[in-house]
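C-alpha cells help. Consider this.
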Amino acid sequence: MDFSSFFSAAKAKNGAFVQFGFETQGDSLVLRRDLAGTDFYAAFTVRGETMTAQVFERETGEKYALFDMERAEGAFVGEVREKVQEIAGEIFQNCFEANDVRARYVAFIEREFGVSAEYPWAAKEGEEKGFKSERFSDFAVFRCPNKKWFALVMWISYKNLGFESDERVCVVNLKSDCAESVVDKKAIFPAYHMNKTYWITALLTSAADFDQLCALTKQSYALVSAKKPRR
C-alpha cells in the first residue's frame, strides 16, 4: 500500500520518524507494528519522499499477498487494510505538519486581485458526480475582469495526479506559459482536466511553496487578462 501522497499533503517534521519509532536501515526508515487481533505485522518503509506498507506473517515472515492485491476482497483482508490505514493515520498525525493552505490562498487571491470566489456548481450536482456536497460547494472559480477564469480551486483524488491513494486533496488549476518547466510531480502537476501544455494543477497543501504558488497565480492572471501581474 502506497502512502507517498503524505509527502504532497504536508511537510515531514525533522526527526519525527525516528521519534515515532522508525529505525534506520540503509537509506530507508522502517517501522514494524503488530496488527492487533491477527497473526500479522505491518512494515512501513520511508525512502526519500515515498512511504509504503507491506504486511507479513509474524511466525514465518511470509508476505501476505492479498494485502497488495487491489481487487482482493473479503472481511479479513479488509480488516487488515483498515488496521494498516489506522497506523498510517497515526504516522501522519505525528510525523507531518499540515495547515489550512486553501484558506490562506483564497485570502491571497481576494486581496491581490480584488475578486471574490464564485461557486458555480450546486451541491446536488456535486453529489451526482460522486463528490461530498460540502466539498463540492468549495469548488471556487476566480475570474478576471474579462470574465474568464484564472484560478479554479477544487477537490480531486490523488489518483488523478498519478498517486495510488483514493484520498481527496485540494488543488488549483492555473494557466502557465512555462508548464513543462514548473511541473515537478510533487506539488505541481500536469493540469487535471485541462490542456496540459498551457495549464497546471498545484496542490494547496503545506508541502507547496506558497511564494511560488502566488507567483504562478499572478502569471495565470496576467495570461488570462492579458495584463501584467502586480508586483
Q: What stands out?
A: The CA atoms of residues 77 and 225 lie 53 Å apart. The longest helix spans residues 75-95. Confidence is low (pLDDT under 50) at residues 123-127, 131-136. The two ends are 44 Å apart (CA to CA).
